[in-house]
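DM from R.C. (forwarded with permission)

"hey, sorry to bug you on a friday — could you get me a structure for this? deadline for the figure draft is monday and I only need the backbone to look sensible"
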Amino acid sequence: MNNDELINILKDGNIAIIPTDTTYGIICDATNEEAVKKVFLAKKRDFNKPLIILASNIEMVYKYTKEISPLEEEIIKNFWPGPLTILLKKNNLISDLITANSPLVGIRIPLNKDLQELIESLNKPIVATSANISGEGVITDVTKISKELRQKIPYIVKGNKISSIPSTLIKVNDNKQIVILREGIMASQIKEKFKDYM
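My reply, with the result:
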């Protein structure tokens, strides 16, 4: 499947499985609520558990969020693109379905150039969540994707085995405190760079 085919699949409101920078992921157009529902149903994911979105560049991040603080901007400048997910205030272009009714959305710009180009071509952020049934292990090898998911999601982009590197998840409180919600791979660098805010 080439990039154009994948773009059309996403534009048509379908979901697909692709290799991302951290794992094999189920993706969809983050602005299409029906497609987002398909992701939850395919994974058997609780609708109270939010999903994260990926953007291709900082302009796209600004388009779908609001009130980014100076400290958040400084973190973004230092660590994006990369495996760092930041909880930012979303605007009404992002459905409450993605955030489980939270005013915050987890968002990051991936390091993977192919992934950046895909999102750029779609011209919209994508939902990205591990290609497994909820509660099962992370999938880093396309051959390990379950039969159940393969039946639900016929659109699968095959790639090499991925070295799983879970993204770090953070939140910034009142422009003065960084809270690490999931350690991931970037936590030590953030603690070092922004130790005065920890």
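R.C.: lifesaver. The longest strand covers residues 24-29.
me: no worries. The chain has a mean pLDDT of 95.
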